[in-house]
Design a protein that fits this description.
A hairpin with a 7-residue loop joins strand 8 (about 70-75) and strand 9 (about 85-95). The relative contact order is 0.07. This protein is about 35% helix and about 35% strand. The protein has eight helices and 24 strands.
Amino acid sequence: VNFMGYSDLQCLGRCLAIIQDVAGEKLRCESALANPENTLLAVFEATPFYGESGGQSGDKGRVHAAEFDGDVIDVQRPVDGLIVVHIKPKRGVLKVGEAYMQETDHHLRQLTARNHTATHMLHWALREVLGDHVKQAGSLVTPDLLRFDFSHFEALQESHVEAIEKLINDRIFSRHTVDKKEMAKEEAIAAGAIAFFGEKYGDRVRVVKVGGFSTELCGGTHVDDTAEIGLFKIVSESSIASGVRRIVAYTSQTAFEYLKSRDQEVRTVRSRLKAVSLEDVETKLEKLLQSEKDLKKQLEKFRSQQLAQQIDGLIAEAASIKGHKLVSFLCPEDDQGMKTLRELCDQLLQKAPQAIVVLGMVQHATQKASLLVARGKQGPGSFSAQQLIQSVSPYFNAKGGGKAELAQAGGDKLEGLQIAMEKVPELIQAML
C-alpha cells in the first residue's frame, strides 16, 4: 500500500481487497453491497488514511465514487506496509479493481497532528525538568487528547508540572519549524534521534525534528510549525505501575475548552460565596474552614457533656451477674463510631472500676456495626473480653480481637448487633 497521507489528505486509489465483517465473521469478497449494519474492511493501492500505530489513532473520513459512498470509522495497520480501512457503507457497491476517492477528515487529522507533535515536546520537556532517566513507556494520540507514559520514581510536584507546561508553551508561542525527513536508521541514531516507544523501524526511518530541541524517530503525522499547536495543558498526572507515571494533556481547541470549563467552575464558586475576586474566594474559604473547626469543637464539647450525663445513669441501671456489674448499652449513632465507644468506656470504668462494660453502635451511613468489651481494673479475673468478642462476633458478621481486658470488633450485619448484645449476659454468666 502506498501511503500518501504525509502530503495529501485525499487521493484516488484502486481497491485491492474487500473483507465483509458480518456479525463478527470476516468473509473475503470481490464486491459488497452497501448494508449500514455491516462493516467493510478494504485495502487500497494508494491511500491518504493513517493506520493506527506508534500510539497514534487511525484516521476517519470518507470513501466514495459514482456507485459507492461510505464513512471511514477506523484505519488499522495490522502489519508493516498494510493499511486496512474500516468503512460503514451508506449506498452502492464497493468493488475490487475500481478506483475510489478517499478523503481524510481534515479537522480530526489536524487535531491529532497537534497532539502528536506536543507528545514529542512533552518527552523532551520531561527529560529537561526531571532528568535523562525519563524514558517513554507508552503513548496514545487522538484528536481529543494525548496520553504519555514514562519511567520516573515519584509523583511530579506542582512546580514540575508548571515548569514542563512553561517549556512547551514557550516553544509553541515562539514558533519552531517541525521538519520531517527520511534517512538511514544508523544515520538518524548517530544524529541523536530518540526511538519512540511502540514504533517498528526498518533500514530507512522517518525523523521528526522539532526546532533544535527534539529529534525523534516517528512514522506519525505532525504539524509544520509549533504555533499550530496553539496551547498545551496538562490535566492529570498519576501512577500506573511501579516506577511508571502517566500524563494526560490537551492541546489547541480541547485545551481551550478545558480551561473554559475550569473558568466556569471558578465563576460558580465565586457566585456561591458572593466573592468579588479570587483573593476574596480564598479569604471566604478560610473563614468557612475556621467556622467548621469551631463548630466541630463545640459539637465535641456538647457530646462529652452528654456522655458525662449518661454515665451515672448507666452505672445505676447496670445489671448484676454473680455480684459483678454489667454495663451494657447500645449507643446512639454518630460519625465517630468506635472513638465514641472508647471514650464512654474510659469514663464508665473510671467511676466503676469493678464493672464489665459492653458498648455497641450501628452506623447506617457506613453500614458498620461496632462492639467494644472491657473489664475494669477491679473486675472479675475469670472474665475475658477477647473471649466474649469471639463468641458474639458471628451474630453481626464481625472481625476483631484484643486482650482479656479490652477487645473490639466491627461487622456489616447491622441487625445482628442487637442479637449479639442480648446474648452477652448468659455468656458472661458462663464465664464467671
